[in-house]
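Why run this: before we spend reagent on co-expression, it is cheaper to look at a predicted model of the complex and decide which construct boundaries make sense. The entries below are exactly what would go into the expression plan.
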Amino acid sequence: MVATNNLKTPQGQASFEISAYLQARQRLCDVALEGAIPIVYPEKIYEAMRYSLLAGGKRLRPILCLATCEMAGGTIEMAMPTACALEMIHTMSLIHDDLPAMDNDDYRRGQLTNHKVYGENIAILAGDGLLAHAFEFVATNTQNVPAERLVQVIAQLAKAVGAAGLVGGQVLDLDSEGKPDISLETLNFIHIHKTAALLEASVVSGGILAGVKDSDRQRLSRYAQNIGLAFQIIDDILDITATQEELGKTAGKDQKAQKATYPSLWGLEESRRQAQQLVEAAVAELTPFGEGSIPLAAIANFIISRTH
Amino acid sequence: MVATNNLKTPQGQASFEISAYLQARQRLCDVALEGAIPIVYPEKIYEAMRYSLLAGGKRLRPILCLATCEMAGGTIEMAMPTACALEMIHTMSLIHDDLPAMDNDDYRRGQLTNHKVYGENIAILAGDGLLAHAFEFVATNTQNVPAERLVQVIAQLAKAVGAAGLVGGQVLDLDSEGKPDISLETLNFIHIHKTAALLEASVVSGGILAGVKDSDRQRLSRYAQNIGLAFQIIDDILDITATQEELGKTAGKDQKAQKATYPSLWGLEESRRQAQQLVEAAVAELTPFGEGSIPLAAIANFIISRTH
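The model came back. Tokens follow.
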């Protein structure tokens, strides 16, 4: 995976260190998220929201949003409130998915799940609070972006989390438990909605904030859909090959839940090959953006090289 | 309650039939809501969202939004997507509040609660889906309103449902169960957040859509806060005096849950007097709006005369 860690620019001059880039961006996002939800009365709900939001995720969605906005001529400052909102939405979906009535998970990002610490009722409300705060945060904190673009961003985020996105994907995911023989079509539906939709919103919203034209927005959508599915294939592979310590969450849970996964349909080797193909297709969509697309291309490659 | 049902206009000419007005507006809202969530694959989640959304509520929040927008010089068409979003948010809060981990209620609006029909997992997701759809619906369906106003409306709605609104109120409400001796201050906090905040967002968003000036927005806020508390006082009274059939939901549940209520603090008579005072204060805020404020004044009076 040399290409991932030391990408040549089109000029073949500078090198691009994806690990350092991701670390620096993650720190930027962590600082912004840290300030995004002050604790006021009643403290418990704000603490519960912060507990999961600040649990140290990879911040992949915020980073994609920032990177796309910059690539398209915008700034980090323009995109940061939306980037934070994306992480709030992602965190909300994790909190609700982990609930006993859903996947019933005890660990997430290396710590106890929200409901194990705060109880089911507060965990449900913390998710609701994060989802609402995401929209409020974009609407009230974004600077130097025309309101027309903000309305479009809000529509993108909302669609990605609703029944045509995360929620719809989770419905089918719940249905697929104990049915290891579901079709590739159903598996794709689940992950296009449960994983790719929010990654797509992350990338496309970054583009909208910077004012990309429609044809570029289409390219960004295809880039994101491809890395979204690749991301999920790798997730499925890691669920089999990685330890709980590496993942920071319960390992081997797909097999335990008798869930169909890409490796269960294709085997490990073919799954890796498909993920590689998807990443190549994703990177191809970035060609018109030139040298500015190096971070997004590197992120795509990083996705299939990650170990957790 | 003659004044409620047959209000004179300032000119003393035309009369205003609040019951007919509310019925007509409710029908308008029901038609709009009926078309707001088409059923697509996976059908179950859309059906669950529609089940609770179309269960025939009073549509008080949408009606307040439409009435305020009209009073401030806007149109029903400008406000209808926001009106629908308000009902989606309200319905989401009911679905989640009724969950076993929360108030554990079996009946709502005269029918089984969402989780009793679809299961807890789908009920949680149906709430999430409705909340997301509310924002998407405002952002994509509103016509002839400047985007700057839409962004402000979205911020209002989001704040009203988040930890500084419904969610925060529900947290304290859960805490107050089995504590019949909580202070008036805490009781007010609960209902300002759990009830008044969304009513305030309903009224203020109607004003924002029509482009009211800041001082009028303050008046609208105070009108709504006052009717919000009056509404809750009457709710508490009805929980004691009305039957389950009249309410369409479990009656006497406050007493059973040993919850402090306004009647438990003040007694029934003083509670009615306080509600009446709040409504008078609310109506006084409408003076500068002249004859156009008759519907909002009538709605305020209707709130304390309702029997369910």
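Chain A has 16 helices and four strands. Residues 2-305 of chain A form a domain with the Farnesyl Diphosphate Synthase fold (CATH 1.10.600.10). Bring this page to Monday's planning discussion.
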